[in-house]
């Protein structure tokens, strides 16, 4: 039997697996979960229809979850002397579990493939349909221009969309297939990372399954415009896989791959700048006797590279953009520099809470179903906190996961200064959700020493999460069909606009249920509808229509 990192007491290998279901742990877990489910579902049912109160309820539950997790991971004095390092060496075993996680991740998002382009997608398409020198080269040499200044440096993200356009052109399902593929690559990275840090097989499968179905990731996977977030998360995750492998084996090629993938992640989105912190945080995880010890000179060189790579990339970004970039406040100051008390609360409370319980409360079509799924899920998570039996190694990995969760939102702290019941900015939580997934898996391992029982609990979490994912996806389906309908109506009203035509379109909402609905990209969408006619203009909603403009009012059609 393989050694367990997740329990202070080794699993009794001589017992048949079904004896676990007659154990004290089993009855205690079931009883605690049922009791908490009754309480939390009652509380959530009493708030149905009030999205803010529901959001706040689960934010408070998340605070309790993280507080309990922190307290339960503190070592007790009598335990410290007796604890040993128990790590499992990576092995080929587990491919079936990984295959299950990949299949489940595909099934969860296969319904998004027929979705249409949404909002910002049209602006990105309008850019990448041009030649490389027009569309991509300025992104490499100058950055992303917002009409006033250069704000972001994400050339690899735009290159990804550029290549997608060469393959799929105006066929939206192709872009969604690419997004799903990136999600599957990230699921695989989660699995192999858990292997590299010494988690046992069932815990690795649990982490990849939980990540595959975390509801908070729906925006990042469903919206084509979130390609930047997905690329940064996937490349960053594989960078961590190779960094963990280098730490275990001392292979120089693994170290080189970790640095290279980090650089590519940074070229996708600036959220990847937190990865070097996790490179260093890996040292929290104890080494077992099989881990290769690097000579001091090699360790110093590796540390130097981990510091130099992000610094050089930051200097390159600063030089290219003429500053740190990013969105700007009315005063012209980059809002990333405006880190105030609300930002601190957002990073420490709101962002982790949204990542853990990523439910779109602005959708009211199936409130009772979602409230039930959310309440039972929260009960399971709290039960795991209460019943976990951490040892030295699992405690260190838990602290590593908590660092991951809390630092992941730092680059986008300004998004979480206010509550977000509709998950409008949840794309910024995609990378942090991996830390949550591994944390839940480790808590499962700390609670149940029997792998089969651990996986049965993962199955329950997966079913509940699948329900929540489909709930969140329903808002994107609504906006997708609404976008098709709007463009079809415009085409029906004006089948062949005159040259240099100007449209004045009113009555279109900025967003629906937390999903952007032509908050930007309306002009590009109209040009798309007329086979990319660059002579067409669309006046902003706030302006007065030109006397010769084609006026279309959608107010009465909503």
SSE blueprint:
Blueprint: H1 24-45, H2 51-72, H3 77-80, H4 95-109, H5 120-128, H6 132-135, H7 137-141, E1 144-145, E2 150-152, H8 155-168, H9 172-196, H10 201-212, H11 218-222, H12 227-249, H13 252-266, H14 275-281, H15 296-321, H16 341-356, H17 367-387, H18 392-408, H19 432-447, H20 451-493, E3 502-506, E4 511-512, E5 515-516, H21 522-529, E6 537-539, E7 550-553
Parallel strand pairs: 3-6, 3-7
Antiparallel strand pairs: 1-2, 4-5
Helix pairs in contact: 1-17, 2-16, 2-17, 4-9, 4-10, 5-8, 5-21, 8-9, 8-12, 9-10, 9-12, 10-19, 10-20, 12-13, 13-15, 16-18, 17-19, 17-20, 18-19, 19-20
Rg from alpha-carbon coordinates: 25 Å
| Overall number of domains | 2
User: CA-to-CA gap between the ends?
Assistant: 62 Å
Number of helices: 21
Number of E-state strands: 7
Q: Are there runs of 5+ residues with pLDDT below 50, and where?
A: 1-14, 80-85
Indicate the percent of residues in helices: 55-70%
The SS-based structural class is mainly alpha
Strand content: under 5%
Determine the mean pLDDT.
87
Strand order of the largest sheet: 6-3-7
The main β sheet shows up as: 3 strands, parallel
Helix and strand pattern: HHHHHHHEEHHHHHHHHHHHHHEEEHEE
Shape: globular
